[in-house]
Amino acid sequence: MESIPRAKTTSFAKRTHTTELGCIACEELSDVGAGKEGWLVENPNLHCALGGHSIAIANGSVILITGWDDGPRFRIRPELSPIQSEFITALEWLVYDEIRVIAVGTSSGYLLVYSLDGHLVHRQMVYPGKILKLRVRGTKKDLTHDSYSNEVSVVFSGVIARFDGSDIQNLLQEWFQNSHAPFWDEKEMNSEDSGSFFRRLHYQMWNIGKYGLCADAAITDIMPPPLMEVQSSQRYYCAVTIGENAVISAFRLSEDKNRSLVGAILSKVVPATFSTIASFSKMIWRSEPTFTKRSEVKPQSFAKASPLTCLMDHPRKGEKLTLSPSGTLAAITDSLGRILLLDTQALVVVRLWKGYRDANCLFTEMLVNKDSARASSSNYELTKGDYCLCLAIHAPRKGIIEVWEMRTGPRLVTVQCAKGSKILQPAYRLGSSLNSPYVPLDVFLLHGDSGLLSVINHSLV
């Protein structure tokens, strides 16, 4: 996660659990719908993403990037199709060491990447459907080592796609090097013709709609291969989905499209048979040669997704899914005001909260049962072992944020928040070094009506 500078906590007689950072209020916010009470939380087409020092807010066809106080402000207006009534449906930051860009998902299935000055870096059709969410996180490369890779997942209603973070990093580095070259022609790079000049990024895609359309999904981690499968160097992933028919379902995702024995046989027999039939038919019919037009980019074929488990509990519906940094826990909100804590490795619900309608959840880290004198010392550098994983639950109907210790710990703190507030978390830093100082998980609170941005303190003192 990215570190964000903190202002000094205002001292009051009453103990406070938040630190105010600044205010994003500005005239430009009217472009994304600001100006009426509750604008930040009542518009389902409004999307927010927090970067290191900036917030990106998208509404329909415009993106506003703004900092707090006197920070710079930028507008990005993606080129969307008016014929298909295309609009922005997902938003996320892609943050590398020296590169920060905005990833945009559209209602037509396009993944767009923009630089902060509004230049289109990449455009690619992923799948012809509405993109529900963009997820950026790190995953283990294998089960035996602690080495990590980065990924960007694109979630549709019944489909999930995975991009390797290193491929995106190479693309961004190449683009930024070319954009600063002395003979780089900006007009040529932006004179798009069906997106043909963009280098197509490799990705994997799976059909996860066996149990109906899903409202959200996530790739959790690497998982062991199934029994009786052809063993190879290919990896398997676990995907968790939530939706209307199945509150929770899980799938084993294979990197290879033909991992099973049956699939391997079909992959050899079917193409050969089809080729023989096609050749024989040409000999008989002697069809005239046809001139083919330049075909549009076809959607990528699906890799194999095997169902693992499914929880159906009508009329309960899964609504939102939040994944822990390691991917071993997932917080799921449902239509009955419950929050389920899922162990994604055992695929069992290990905790349940009730009475939290319209709740939003984010994982965070707190300093619990630590030597406060040692932790507050300027000579002591905090490590990951000094923090404990917690879940922050924003209950807008109650006007509070509760922080619970994982997995079965108590409620640590309750923070009051005004109506019209939204909780946010900084983007995952892709390609960050393992030797860099540890940055704990933060949870930020943005009040839409006033524009005030604050952060929940890690210490309970």
Automatic annotation (TrEMBL):
Secretion signal, residue range per the UniProt entry: none
Transmembrane segments: none
InterPro entries referenced in this protein's UniProt entry, alphabetically: Rab3GAP2, RAB3GAP_N, WD40_repeat_dom_sf
Matching SUPFAM superfamilies: WD40 repeat-like (SSF50978)
Domain Rab3-GAP regulatory subunit N-terminal span(s) in chain numbering: 39-424
Pfam families (alphabetical): RAB3GAP2_N
Name the UniProt record assigns to this protein: Rab3-GAP regulatory subunit N-terminal domain-containing protein
Species name: Erythroxylum novogranatense
